[in-house]
Amino acid sequence: MNHSHDRSRAPVTATTKITSNQHFQIILLPLTTPMVRSFATACAFVGALAVAAAQPSFVYKFDAADAAGVDGSIQIQYAGENSSIATITAALDFSRVNQSDIVAFDNNCTMDTVTSWKWHIHTKWNSTRSSDSFKQCAKAATASHFDPLRACGPVSEYNAEPECEAKIKDYACNPDNYAADPLKCEKGDLSGKFGAFKLAEDATVSNQWTDEHFPLPSENTESWSIVLHAVCGQESRIACAHRTEVEGEVDQTPVSSVQSTVPPAGCGV
């Protein structure tokens, strides 16, 4: 009878066990052992979560019932914890926006349908809801554009300062100028940087941009909101949404809830 070991068996991994006399005993377990597979899978999952945690992510969710008919979300996902590189993903549906409501709020808006929308980061949130509309998006409720470097557009958070006020007339933020010189734009002037939302035939927006000079995660505060302005009449603030921190990417049609996960012990995360 051949008592030689079968070398075709599954590879093994080593674990260490301390016996009662304090000697080290090496126990070899096949990599196919269910316990080893489960532990490796758990650690791989935790490793993926650690990467996600190192990439801060924020979402602005618009609920049609509260946000003047606008539904969907805008997500900001950073490349790293201290990175200014961020991916901005917009997935919005404007099909339930009632034009008569916009006209009632801004009687200078006389077009049949608003097909273009400006969007900005504002520095305040006053509503008890996660998204809102009309007066709840006004300056008293959402304040002005985030502008820490004082590019000084007309709605800059510092537009009342004499130095900033003098620069307003020369403010020219557009995608070409921003690509040439990021200081031309307020950090919160998203439509200036990337262009206004242009609705598709089905009244939706689905687009993605990468900004290498986005506000740092450390600048990102709980008071932030994104406000949507109808490009019509006085370009009134029609809908707005509050910032929510999430983990990793989210399903933006609609945005799904994200559950926190506690890592299993022993994975070194």
UniProtKB/TrEMBL annotation:
InterPro entries assigned to the protein according to its UniProt record, in alphabetical order: SOD-like_Cu/Zn_dom_sf
Lineage: superkingdom: Eukaryota
Protein name (Swiss-Prot/TrEMBL): Uncharacterized protein
Species: Phytophthora oleae
Organism placement in taxonomy: Eukaryota, Sar, Stramenopiles, Oomycota, Peronosporomycetes
